[in-house]
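Weekly structure sync, notes
Attendees: PL (lead), two postdocs, one rotation student
Agenda item 3: pending single-chain targets
PL asked that the sequence for the first pending target be pasted directly into the notes so everyone works from the same version. It is reproduced below exactly as submitted, 322 residues in total.
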Amino acid sequence: MTHAAGVGRERSSEVGRFAPSTTGSAHPGTLLAGLLCWLDARSRDADLWLRFEDLDPQRCRPEYLETLREALAWLGLDWQGEERQSDWGPGHAEALDALAARDLLYPCSCSRAQLGAAPPPRAPDGSARYPGTCRDRRLPSAAEGGWRACADALRLRLPSGRIELRDESGADLSEDPAESYGDPVVRRRDGAVAYHLASVVDDRRIGVTRIVRGRDLAPSSAVQVAIGRLLGCPEPRYRHHLLLLEERGGKLAKFHGAVGFEALRESYRGEELCGLLAHACGLRPDPAAVRPQDLVTDFRWADVRGRDRRLDWDGRALHLGS
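Predicted structure, written out during the meeting:
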């Protein structure tokens, strides 16, 4: 179901989206990503949609969706519309039908353990590169039910060829996805439509022109562009930003799970955390409390810190590192 906001407002020519996964509570990294996405859209007078990515039946939970919604509102963010990916299954199936009609889908029985044991090279995002083990397999015939009757995961035969792609920051995202990643899974063995396909299809449906997200997702941008081209989707512009990092096991890792929204709300007001996040990413010289709308007029990507930032939680408060 889609929930519209801003009734009576003329639709902008630019459209963005913030798309958190409902696999856990909102944490500071989630809220920073939401804030930067929101500031980018509001400073451009662009429409911005909130999309809950809730297709993973093993990890996504309704209570996480509710706390994400509450946390983003608590921080002071609003949207032109809100939707859940799980409400748009027919559109995902239609995309799979279109790909199957071109003989671009095939069943794959390779397990994660098999792929994890494969020798290097790895894919640019650190995942196992798919070597094409099942590429010669075919789907059941249409009379037998086609891809819907297939119990295995489904992969997409990507065409070879380099995709030239550059982030708005200047970072080169160009890649030959077929060579670097191999054929991506587009429907999992458990029946869930995979992230890349669902994201591309849902972006097309709401007319997304800009994608603002953390730099950890930058390496897979060319994969999504390749899928989009096969489906005839317009190509969005990309802007990837810094991550918040925490120390985990003696090394720095993406900030996730150390502190959730419930604990943050006990220690901060929304304006106080907004001020801390704005300071952490370089938008403010100090962490004084501020509302998101007070940051819009002076927002410039040139002011946003390029390097990742360390953030520590001591059980009561957040502390910024270098």
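Discussion points:
- The domain at 89-196 is CATH 3.40.50.620 (Rossmann fold).
- Residues 1-9 have pLDDT under 50 and may be disordered.
Action: rotation student to compare against the earlier draft before next sync.
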